[in-house]
Design brief:
The protein is an alpha/beta fold and about 160 residues long. It has one domain: Rossmann fold (3-Layer(aba) Sandwich), CATH 3.40.50. About 50% of the residues lie in helices and about 15% in strands. It contains 7 helices and 5 strands, in the order βαβααβαβαβαα. The protein has a 5-stranded parallel sheet with strand order 2-1-3-4-5, sandwiched between helices. Helix 5 links the parallel strand 4 and strand 5. The longest helix has 22 residues. The two termini are about 20 Å apart.
């Protein structure tokens, strides 16, 4: 089964690469989509394309709107949405992506550490799986694609 998976959330660790490499090593046919993870490029895309703004609000507004074109398109294309909440920053955009994906009826996998469970309980409630590691996400995608669990691969 070929899947399209959107990887939403924090941009300060290599969790996306870990998921993509894990899926590739298992032969999963997945098209991965993601937001622009270069902070400066993402923040400044609006003024780079549409021109400078004197006020920070309009600078941010232009960038947010252009990024929303990419995000909305990717979320609509995705079969599965993985949303990672990191340790260092509150990812309001990730929570918004989870809500939008829920409204679209997408299958959602949430990833965060146990200490964030209470703060993210409503987000977790909208997910079909709540994980802590990229490896768990790869296992879910393996099961979704092939109907097998990682342990089954070892026994082949």
């Amino acid at each position: 089964m070929k899947l399209t998976v959107y990887l939403s959330g924090e941009i300060h660790t290599d969790w996306r690469e870990a998921i993509m490499k894990g899926c590739e090593s298992r032969g999963l046919k997945i098209d991965f989509l993601a937001p622009v993870t270069n902070h400066e490029l993402s923040d400044n895309c609006g003024i780079e394309i549409l021109g400078n703004e004197k006020e920070k609000f309009w600078h941010d507004n232009k960038g947010a709107n252009i990024n929303a074109i990419r995000t909305k398109t990717a979320l609509q294309r995705a079969d599965i949405v993985v949303v990672r909440f990191g340790e260092k920053y509150k990812q309001w955009n990730a929570a918004f992506d989870a809500g939008y994906a829920t409204a679209l009826g997408k299958s959602i996998i949430i990833m965060h550490k146990q200490e964030h469970q209470h703060a993210l309980k409503e987000v977790d409630a909208s997910a079909l799986a709540v994980t802590e590691t990229p490896e768990q996400v790869v296992d879910i995608l393996t099961y979704t694609s092939f109907g097998i669990i990682n342990k089954d691969l070892i026994n082949e």
